[in-house]
C-alpha cells in the first residue's frame, strides 16, 4: 500500500482515493439498481389478468397512449368503421357492442375528419385512455406516478456519490494536485445519477412478464410472420399492433399504415425506455419504459 505523501489531498494519495471511489460508486450503483427493481415490483397480491380480449389495454401497456390509439384504429379499419387518408381519420360506421370505450371515443371524435396526431389530446379519447391507465395501475401492471417518483428518488444515492467526488475534486484543485482521472470518474457518476433521477420504468415487472408471455404465445401475429388480417380478423390486427408496434401494420397491411401516416422504422425490437414514435416492439407509438435500472 502506497504511503500518502506530504501534501496529498485529505492525506490520501490520488491512486488510493480513485480506487476507493470506484469501489464506492460501483457498490452504490448496484444497490440503487436493486432498489429500483424492487420498487418496480411492489409485491402486491394481484391476480394476473388475461389481456387477450383487451387489445387496447395491451397496446397501452406496451407503448402508451399513442400505441393504444393505433391499435384501436387498426381494428376499426379492418371492421370498416374508419377511413384514413394521409394521416386524417374519418369515422364511416358506428362501433358495435364488442367495441370498447376507446373505440367509441375515437368514432365520436372523428365524426368529422381529424388528424391522427391530435386524437390522443381530444377530451373523449383522453378520458378513455386515462381509464385504461387507471385499470392497468390497479391490476399491478403499470406503476403509478407516486411509485415512479419513489424510483427516481433512488438516484439521490448516486448524486451523493457525485457530490463526494466533487468535494475531492475541488480540494485537489485547491492543493494543485492532478485531478484528470477523477474528473472522468466524476462525470460518469454524474451521468448515471442524472439518468436515474430523470427516468423511471412505466411498467411493473409483472407487466413486463405479461407482455413477454403474450408475445411468445401470439408470435403468429409478429411482423416477421406477415400475418393476414383478413384471415385472422380485426381483433388479431389490434393485438398484433398492441404487442409488436406499428411495424406489424407495415408488415401486414402497408396500405393501411401509409394511410394512417405511421412512421416506418426498421426492426421490431423491444426497448425499455425512451420515446420512439410508431416503431416496433416496446418502443412502438411512444414507449413505456420497462423495469430495471
UniProtKB/TrEMBL annotation:
Residues 270-293 are annotated as: Disordered. InterPro entries: Ser/Gly_Cys_C_dom. It comes from the Bacteria. The chain crosses the membrane at residues 17-35, 153-173, 179-198. The keyword DNA-binding does not apply. Keywords: Membrane, Transmembrane, Transmembrane helix. Residues 281-293 have a biased composition (Gly residues). The keyword Transmembrane helix applies. This is TIGR04222 domain-containing protein. It comes from Pseudonocardia thermophila.
Amino acid at each position: 500500500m502506497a504511503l500518502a505523501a506530504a501534501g496529498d489531498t485529505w492525506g490520501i494519495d490520488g491512486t488510493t482515493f480513485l480506487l476507493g471511489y470506484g469501489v464506492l460508486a460501483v457498490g452504490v450503483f448496484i444497490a440503487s439498481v436493486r432498489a429500483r427493481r424492487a420498487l418496480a415490483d411492489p409485491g402486491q397480491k394481484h391476480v394476473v389478468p388475461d389481456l387477450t380480449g383487451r387489445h387496447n389495454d395491451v397496446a397501452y401497456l406496451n407503448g402508451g397512449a399513442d400505441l393504444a390509439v393505433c391499435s384501436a384504429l387498426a381494428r376499426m379499419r379492418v371492421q370498416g368503421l374508419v377511413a384514413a387518408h394521409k394521416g386524417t381519420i374519418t369515422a364511416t360506421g358506428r362501433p358495435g357492442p364488442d367495441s370498447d370505450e376507446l373505440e367509441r371515443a375515437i368514432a365520436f371524435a372523428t365524426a368529422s375528419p381529424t388528424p391522427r396526431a391530435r386524437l390522443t389530446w381530444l377530451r373523449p379519447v383522453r378520458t378513455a385512455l386515462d381509464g385504461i391507465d387507471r385499470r392497468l395501475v390497479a391490476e399491478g401492471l403499470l406503476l403509478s406516478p407516486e411509485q415512479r417518483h419513489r424510483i427516481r428518488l433512488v438516484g439521490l444515492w448516486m448524486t451523493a456519490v457525485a457530490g463526494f467526488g466533487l468535494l475531492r475534486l475541488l480540494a485537489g484543485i485547491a492543493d494543485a494536485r492532478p485531478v484528470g482521472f477523477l474528473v472522468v470518474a466524476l462525470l460518469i457518476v454524474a451521468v448515471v445519477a442524472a439518468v436515474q433521477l430523470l427516468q423511471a420504468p412505466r411498467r411493473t415487472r409483472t407487466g413486463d412478464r405479461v407482455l413477454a408471455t403474450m408475445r411468445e404465445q401470439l408470435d403468429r401475429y409478429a411482423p416477421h410472420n406477415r400475418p393476414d388480417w383478413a384471415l385472422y380478423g380485426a381483433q388479431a390486427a389490434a393485438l398484433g399492433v398492441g404487442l409488436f408496434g406499428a411495424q406489424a401494420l407495415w408488415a401486414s397491411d402497408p396500405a393501411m399504415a401509409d394511410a394512417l401516416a405511421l412512421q416506418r422504422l426498421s426492426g421490431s425490437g423491444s426497448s425499455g425506455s425512451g420515446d420512439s414514435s410508431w416503431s416496433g416492439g416496446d418502443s412502438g407509438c411512444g414507449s413505456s419504459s420497462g423495469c430495471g435500472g
